[in-house]
């Protein structure tokens, strides 16, 4: 189980201090995705724009997920 903050998931570019804990990077990413999608908080705008952008391709998503998986592997689990 690992814990990431919203901010860490956004690569410190933006986001809040909400924490997400789960056993796989995919589960943490999807928890944060729901959190961002259901919020109108301005700090989430960069991620929300990315998620809602119709030009955002599967390749873009995979690129982001590869980055996140690297961050996941660096972080110590509990
Ligand atoms: Zn957040």
Provide the descriptors you would attach to this structure in a database record.
78 residues, mainly alpha, two-stranded antiparallel sheet, 4 helices, 2 strands, binds zinc ion
Structural class by secondary-structure content: mainly alpha
The bound ligands are: zinc ion
Classify the beta-strand content into a percent band: 5-15%
Low-confidence stretches: none
Number of helices: 4
Shape: globular
Number of domains: 1
Largest sheet, order of strands side by side?
Answer: 1-2
* Gyration radius, in Å: 12 Å
* H/E series: EHEHHH
Task: Tell me how many strands there are.
Answer: 2
Distance between the termini: 5 Å
* Main beta sheet strand tally, sense and closure: 2 strands, antiparallel
Please describe what this structure looks like.
The chain is mainly α and 78 residues long. The protein has one domain. The protein contains four helices and two strands; from the N terminus they run E-H-E-H-H-H. Strands 1-2 form a two-stranded antiparallel ribbon. The chain starts with a strand and ends with a helix. It binds zinc ion (ZN). The site of zinc ion has 6 residues, from loops.
């Amino acid at each position: 189980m690992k814990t990431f903050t919203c901010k860490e998931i956004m690569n410190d570019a933006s986001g809040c201090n909400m924490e997400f804990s789960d056993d796989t990077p995919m589960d943490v990413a999807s928890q944060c995705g729901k959190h961002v999608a259901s919020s109108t908080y301005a700090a989430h705008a960069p991620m929300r724009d990315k998620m809602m952008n119709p030009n955002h391709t599967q390749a873009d998503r995979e690129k982001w997920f590869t980055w996140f998986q690297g961050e996941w592997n660096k972080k110590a689990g509990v």
